Amino acid sequence: MLPTVTQLTSLDIYRDGGSLSVSFKGKDPGIEYTLLFPIDLSPAFDSNLKNPSFKSPVLELYRAGQYVSPVTGISTPNTTKETTSTGWAEACKLLEAIRPHLSAFHSEYLWVFEAMVSASSSEGNLC
């Protein structure tokens, strides 16, 4: 089941060659989600390509928590991460749920959203 989007938190392009991501909060407090399109750096990858392709999308769930040392009793913030593969159809649905939140979001990476929409509608190929 896809999470309900309540707030867009970031859009990013990674320095790994061009992976794209959008992060958002859902209904559950203390949880942030990231929809990630990992860049396909297979042996046939050409870094000069203007239209890269992506591996299957991944949904990452980050849950805020606390770690309490059993020795000292000191509590420190601790975030756990769960990663699940998702399909292109689910990625399209998530991106459409995120779209209404774009108007209130300010970033130099707004173009990443449309690139992700393009890639998801063509199953990983950036047109």
Short characterization:
With 127 residues, this protein is an alpha+beta fold. The chain is built from two helices and five strands; from the N terminus they run βββββαα. It starts with 6 loop residues before the first strand and ends in a 6-residue tail after the last helix.
Protein architecture, described:
The protein is an alpha+beta fold. The protein is 18% helix and 33% strand. It has two helices and five strands. Strands 1-2-3-4-5 form a five-stranded antiparallel beta sheet. Strand 1 (7-13) and strand 2 form a beta hairpin. The longest helix has 12 residues, at 110-121.
Describe the secondary structure blueprint for this structure.
Blueprint: E1 7-13, E2 20-25, E3 31-37, E4 58-68, E5 75-85, H1 88-98, H2 110-121
Antiparallel strand pairs: 1-2, 2-3, 3-4, 4-5
